[in-house]
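thought: fold this chain, then report.
action: predict
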Amino acid sequence: MATYGPDERALFEEAGTRLYDDAVRAEGIRADDARIADGGPDRPAFDLLVRLGLLQLDKPSATWLPEDPSVVQSRVVTPLGHEGSRMLEESAQWARSFGVLGQAWRRSPMAQARGPFTYLHDEAIGPFLTGLVAEAEEEMLTAQPQTGRDAGSLAAAALRDTAMLERGTRMRTLYQHSARRSSFTRKYVAAVSERGAEVRTLDEFFKRMIIVDRRVAVLPASDDNRSAVAVREPSVVDFLVDIFERSWERARPFTNRETAMLKDIAAEQRSMTIRMLIEGHSDPVSAKRLGVSPRTYAGYVADLKAEYEAETRFQLGYTMGQSGVSGVDDDASPPAAAD
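observation:
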């Protein structure tokens, strides 16, 4: 049975659905229609619709007639689902096989000789993380700042993490508050939450960190995330777990959309913006600390200027200083206007 991929789906969405809609409204497409002739503008879309079985030729009338798409859908979608299940199972089998090798390696004198720190660079980081997550038996803790998590990396993480969760491994993940605005992140959170993962957000900036079974921690080894270090020293891993737990207690559930909590989050981001201004950080640094783009951060500053009726940042800082605003008290409010 034929299977269809991203290229066919793109053609189907861009041109095939339009041509099918034309066929439905006109009760068919004449076989001599110039649009579907060899070299015609809609010929590729027409050929795809025919292969899918959405257009059938009625020879007596020389007309291509549309078919019920609900009948055709199962012939296309079901094989894709079966292929996806087969690939996930094959991936899990490979992960188990490599897990056996990993256990043998950790017991060997060579692993002990290399010490508790392993440095990874560029393309070596992804496969290492995949293997580490595949070996996870009890729990994975992750701290993920908002920057650097694009659609591709989140999709790969979703496949890797859901497979782990389905084995019964627990997972807790920390994001910054700004992650709540990312549609890609929301989809990822929905996928892992359905399988028992817990996700929370925090106003503070933190470095990326992954801890597996409280025995291995993976941290960035460079600012550009092109290097990482895997730490197996128990005392260091315990220290990092303690930091995670303290942050987790202060964080707020990602799936909680209550108005009161969202207001609290907005107040926390406002307070952090004030702290960045008072501490004199540049806009790029401040934006990174909040997990937002420089443009979004500039919008936060503009809102504060309007709130405190300040035209410049100097005036804003002076007014906040006179009002005793430090960014620590979330309830700080602008001064009352003079009568």
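thought: worth noting. Residues 6-67 form one domain.
final: tokens above.
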